[in-house]
Design goal:
Layout (H helix, E strand, L loop, with lengths): L8 E5 L20 E2 L2 E2 H11 L4 E6 L4 H7 L3 H9 L3 H4 L10 E6 L6 H6 L2 H4 L4 E4 L3 E5 L5 H11 L4 E7 L9 E5 L8 E9 L10 E9 L2 H7 L11 H10 L4 E5 L4 E5 L3 H13 L5 H14 L1
Parallel strand pairs: 1-4, 1-6, 4-5, 8-12
Antiparallel strand pairs: 2-3, 6-11, 7-13, 8-11, 9-10, 10-12
């Protein structure tokens, strides 16, 4: 039986325009917005590295070069800090010293998440691979790797697709891709999936389990994407391609986000503000001062 380490490649789509975060995203990628002291995409990459994923392909678009610059070593900046006595700040650049290898390809026309994943076919070849959306952070309080758990379940069951899912408020299902599990949903973490519905009406959803921005795929996903019709906006939806996998008789399963983990979807200002506040409050260096400030501020509200 293959081990989780057999999956070493991951695709990170970051080509979205981030229009719901304008004007903050007018001239910078939403993935580079700071959450606490780091940009969103740095948390994502740290999560991938913790899961043992060492080959990372960013599917980029217009105005996304800041992401490439962020992960490149910067000898000039290091020399400036060293000559100026800024040795404490050098530790903040340690994330660029990594065994991970970064690759980039461009999705010139934004044609949906399915199309973005299709751009990775030459990169992944005939290997199983992960997909992690670059604008969603998953943090575990105990430091364990949820992605590693997903990869283990995927390989153990010889699945074509393994989805991360999380419970959402039934009133909010219209915002998400929702899965229909096979049989009753028990207390276990792994579920066999019968169907998926993109943004169903409240009251018409098959469950309250939403797809949570992390996927593991076999190469079968590429055939499914190639046979998927664009939606009315001309975009290839990854959810539609996964539904086709089901129709072709492939195994699609889901792993539920654990109670000690939380996903932060940086897709609009409300979720962005909440994420920034949570990370600022728990920051190891500044968290205490922020918590004291928030307590004083709360008394004024």
């Amino acid at each position: 039986m293959a081990q989780p380490g057999s999956i070493v490649k991951v695709v990170v789509p970051v080509a979205g325009m981030g229009t719901r975060l304008l004007p903050a995203t007018k001239s910078q990628p939403k993935e580079m917005l700071p959450v606490g002291r780091r940009p969103v995409v740095q948390y994502v990459v740290e999560e991938l590295q913790a899961a043992g994923l060492r080959q990372i392909l960013f599917v980029t678009g217009r105005k996304k070069t800041a992401i490439e610059d962020h992960f490149d070593p910067d000898p000039e900046l290091v020399r400036t800090l060293s000559s100026g006595g800024g040795y404490d700040l050098l530790s903040e650049l340690e994330y660029t010293e990594t065994p991970a290898r970064f690759f980039y390809t461009r999705q010139s026309v934004p044609r949906g998440l399915g199309d973005a994943v299709a751009h990775a076919q030459e990169f992944t070849g005939d290997e199983h691979f992960a997909v992690a959306l670059g604008d969603s952070i998953i943090m575990s309080r105990d430091g364990s790797s949820f992605l590693h758990e997903m990869m283990a379940a995927h390989l153990a069951n010889d699945a074509a697709c393994t989805l991360a899912v999380e419970e959402v408020d039934p009133a909010d299902v219209y915002r998400y891709g929702i899965v229909k599990p096979q049989g009753e949903v028990g207390s276990g973490d792994s579920l066999i999936i019968e169907d998926l519905v993109e943004k169903p009406r409240a009251g018409a959803a098959p469950s309250n389990l939403a797809i949570a921005a992390r996927y593991i795929f076999s190469p079968a996903i590429y055939e499914a994407i190639s046979r998927t019709a664009p939606d009315r906006n001309g975009e290839l939806q990854l959810t539609d391609a996964i539904r086709l996998l089901l129709q072709l008789g492939e195994r699609v399963q889901a792993v539920r986000l654990r109670a000690n983990a939380r996903r932060y979807d940086i897709g609009n200002f409300e979720s962005y503000f909440k994420a920034f506040i949570d990370f600022a409050l728990t920051d190891e260096k500044y968290g205490y001062m922020v918590r004291q400030y928030v307590k004083r501020k709360a008394r004024e509200i």
